């Protein structure tokens, strides 16, 4: 990619952020609409889980394929294809006549979404080559998540109350079209100098692992052991097969050598933990505010602001701190804030009082605002630029896998606790184990942040980058294992 002027780089960043906005806005707005969808489509708790997880599951399964494909055939080309498919999937979702087809169309959306965020991050990484400038750009990228968290519940609540939940998907249409036209005009094409071949076996194993694991978790409260156990066995077998098969390939879908870098491994674990907490937090909060407190979608969206506004304000601050002082301080703040937030709900039933509910939301928003920039920067900063797409895709996959598991596990715990009882009668006690899980996720962010941001961890990243660059030079173009 040729060196761009500062103004052009800012324009590319803005276009990439538009893709993140429609994906994040869609997810946050949809959470507010869950109770309305539950009533209209007669969905169970597991049905609501599939509405969210069908999207994040497909996204997690295809992100690495999208990242490596973009490195190979062109990031701009794949990014534009993703915009087209995501926008078309949004239109189909708005027309879905039942829950089953809505889940299918959400999967179509996810196919397009898999081509957006990791590819956009790869474009940003290759556009902003200066480490400090890149950290600030990633901070802006993280702030867009805060904007979507602030605007999503409000916009979603207003649309649900005035038009209906289907109108949430209409928002993606004009933004997706505008991003497509701007990308065509202003984003330069780029690709890796040494393209990687596809890894179909690895891709099938990833889909089998993520899909079977999610199904087993979501269906466990209602299905028999004989029905769930085969899927759990498939997940274990797929994981073992990946660990055995991928290192044997010269160009694997998942390059396990990345995990020799302690910061990269830590960023992966932090991403899973933080986004599992986010997925579970939003799921519990939405159902509590509307099904227990009886708020309409708009007022439930307003209650999300104490979480969304700190995320919006803290994300760019986190990016600046990462650029000037490294990732440790933002990760410690994030882990501590998310842990305390979870403990407020687990120990003191924070949802039963307006004051503690507000405080719990603020703390979680601060924690999540600080966590995103160090994840992304740590994941890609130690990798060779030629493999930026794959590295960014692994980080994005970790996010989506975390959110998928968060909704699946927390939803399963909630469904098991509530059973056939009304939400109002049993929600607080049924949700308590879920809040403990979210507090544990925050503690994991804190501990991993401490372990993987020191000098020792930095040295492992340098050694890993050197080995990867040496391997790239020695390997002939187009070889396969």
Features:
mainly alpha, disordered C terminus, 481 residues
Give a description of the structure.
The chain is mainly alpha-helical and 481 residues long. Helices cover 80% and strands 0% of the residues. The protein is built from 17 helices and no strands. It has helices at 6-41, 45-73, 75-94, 99-113, 117-127, 131-162, 172-186, 200-219, 225-245, 262-292, 297-303, 305-325, 328-348, 354-381, 388-418, 423-451, 455-474.
Give helix % range: over 70%
Name the beta content range. Answer: under 5%
Gap between N and C termini, in Å? Answer: 29 Å
What is the mean predicted local confidence, pLDDT? 85
Outline the biggest β-sheet.
Answer: none
Please tell me what the overall shape is: globular
The count of β-strands is 0
Question: What's the order of the H and E elements?
Answer: HHHHHHHHHHHHHHHHH
Uncertain stretches: 476-481
Layout of helices and strands:
Elements: H1 6-41, H2 45-73, H3 75-94, H4 99-113, H5 117-127, H6 131-162, H7 172-186, H8 200-219, H9 225-245, H10 262-292, H11 297-303, H12 305-325, H13 328-348, H14 354-381, H15 388-418, H16 423-451, H17 455-474
Provide a quick synopsis of the model.
The protein is mostly helical and 481 residues long. It has helices spanning 6-41, 45-73, 75-94, 99-113, 117-127, 131-162, 172-186, 200-219, 225-245, 262-292, 297-303, 305-325, 328-348, 354-381, 388-418, 423-451, 455-474.
